[in-house]
Amino acid sequence: MPASDRGAAATVDGPLAAGAQPAAPGLDPGQAASAAAGTADSAPVRPQGPQGSRARPMRKERAHKATSEDGARAATSGHRPHSHHARSRSAGADGRPRRQTPAVPAAIDPEDPSSLRTNRQGMVRMRGKTDKGRRWHQEIDMELAVTLVKEKAAVVVNRYTIRRLFSNKDFKRYIMTRDQYTCYFCGSYGDTIDHLLPRAKGGHTTPLNCVCACNLCNQSKAAMDADEFMRSGIPEWNAAHQEELNELQMQEAQLE
């Protein structure tokens, strides 16, 4: 066989090149080569990145890597990493920090002493005004403060302070007007104030413990309780002899 024929035979009978397909039967060598070239041109070619055919890392892997890097930086700097949930709790929808609303203190009933508390010295502050309008204050114990509030002589200002409602003149005018200048014991004209429970026995100058009284009953009662004084019969005797006693008082006042 001539050399040219042997070369052609080797080209046709030799191993197929990579990616080449076997020639269809009945085609000559030229037609087979053209068909192989057309197949290669029509086959899609997968683009490769700069690093070849290596796949990109998944999103979860990238997020885990970023979290690991944040944790490493936090461990190095001594600060805790800020999480998305923590930011969402402390910030609004626009990303600005939310302003915390201060707690509203509970309303205080001025006539309820249960809200009172003592200061560091174990006392309650009481304030008021004198007859001339000057302000004053003093420290009292809790028991007295509660009594004054319950007996309508003071009101609660805050948890540690009460305010006296009356000055001395205002208090006397209030009691006289309330009782219509009538003695609580004998029913005659009254122009003084007497304590139902004497101060010697723990009574206080409060609207609930003070009444209008005539001068005679005020002096006769002395340190007796109101019930004890009413049972003694002295108020009846005072009422019967009130006119005579008033005349005697007027005579004594003239002599003086």
Protein architecture, described:
With about 260 residues, this protein is α+β, with helices and mostly antiparallel strands. It has helices at about 5-15, 30-40, 60-75, 85-90, 140-150, 170-180, 215-220, 225-230, 235-240, 240-255, and strands spanning about 125-130, 135-140, 155-160, 160-165, 190-195, 210-215. The longest helix is centred in the N-terminal third of the chain and has 19 residues, at about 60-75. It is elongated and about 110 Å long.
Structure summarized in a few sentences:
41% of the residues lie in helices and 11% in strands. It has helices spanning 3-13, 29-42, 59-77, 84-90, 142-150, 168-179, 215-221, 226-231, 234-240, 242-255, and strands at 124-129, 135-140, 154-158, 161-164, 192-195, 210-213.
